[in-house]
Amino acid sequence: MAAKQNFIAGAWVDGSGVTVDINPSDVSDVVGEFTQANKAQTDEAVAAAKAASAAWGLSTPQQRADALEMIGTELLARKDEIGRILSREEGKPLANGIAETMRAAQIFKFFAQEALRIEGTQLASVRPNVDVTITREPAGVVGLICPWNFPIAIPAWKIAPALAYGNTVVFKPADLVPATAWALAEIISRSGLPKGVFNLVMGRGSVVGQAMLDNKDVNALSFTGSVQTGARIAQACVAQNRKFQLEMGGKNPLVVLDDANLDAAVAGAVDGAFFQTGQRCTASSRLIVHSKVHDAFVEKAVTMLKGLKVDHALKEGTQIGPVVDESQMKQDEDYIRIAREEGGELAWGGERLNRDTKGFYLSPALFTNTKNDMRINREEVFGPVASVIKVDSYDEALAVANDTAFGLSSGIYTQSLKAANDFRRKSQAGMVMVNLPTAGVDYHVPFGGRKGSSFGPREQGRYAAEFYTTVKTAYVSA
Ligand code: NAD
Description:
By secondary structure, the chain is of the alpha/beta class.
């Protein structure tokens, strides 16, 4: 099988090595082979984006809208096929893979329209006979570095606004999910964009990602991934005075008060904590439960967990697929061991499972008897592992929820308008959910967090303009 190639300056090109993409539901299934870029090739992609930047920055909104609309339309038409590729290489159940592909299509269609609505303002100057205009211009060449857990939605929510606002793109997908990225890039390659406007460079973070960081012609860099990599990106970007945006980890709290609809709260907690194998930055990993309903909550949650079907992502009825790979599996198991050593009690799960095919199957692990200062409640696991923290009041719940280095999303289940409103106001998170799981967001509104979870302007919705454009103030005298 010929390895799928990188897309640079309008041409498909080989890199300097090949990676084999393995299905985590069945390690005997090879999803495909993909070329790996090296530093020189990454620099070529940046040079191509730079060469295309001036003309694309002056392209008409209609040109941009037409390209983005075409990409969205084709993604929608091929959602079943691309969703299947996504689920096969990442391991989320097929329905989620298809839904994520639809989400990507909606994002492209949303930004197709936004390209037609790039606004500026005009003010009278404080000086006579002078007008002041404030307009938005493209940031220039943008580097997009993506994680593996949303292989098409996250690339879409970076690529679509980047193009809509007139930037040229160098896109680096995560090493574990090149097939979905390649399928997306192949559609983009036929969307009528001039050569060099969009470039795909697949390969390792330490090689391709690092080359993007080192290249002074990358004007802005958008990153989603781990806290550790985010810190390196920040340092490199500050050193180069480059605009950057980071979306990183979470340790998201879900509060369950004693007046909550308990069945809804349990369903929301199980969904938020364990669906998509807990591999969501918005996963509810700290379940902060009022002591009056604690035991009933745990009992109902364990009953629900026992009934969940953990199996091959493409199998009918699967609710939770495999962990993404062996190294993530080891990380999950390490945290399960650490939680036990810290005094956490495993109420359910945390076991490797055997299925018909050899994959990375782990039963969802729920810990009780945990305290907020334990490592299991301080550090992101990024797997199907959650812990319950018992509290005696709303005030204690709020304090525990906010006592974290992170601040991506948070949630509360309660029937009390007073508590819900107070939580909405005082929760130190970028996204707050009331009577909803902490994961699961809309595509037309801002996405992002506070504290250690995020840095820089928000992604998605109209707020994306803050990152992908730079403001110009012009003074004009007649
Ligand atoms: P990661 O940090 O390992 O990798 C992310 C990307 O960075 C990959 O493309 C990787 O190749 C690249 N990279 C690695 N080393 C690099 C380097 N030295 N220089 C430049 N690039 C480099 O993260 P991951 O394991 O792919 O993703 C999981 C993490 O992503 C979790 O922490 C999760 O919380 C986070 N995440 C956050 C959000 C959010 O919006 N807040 C969304 C999804 C995932």
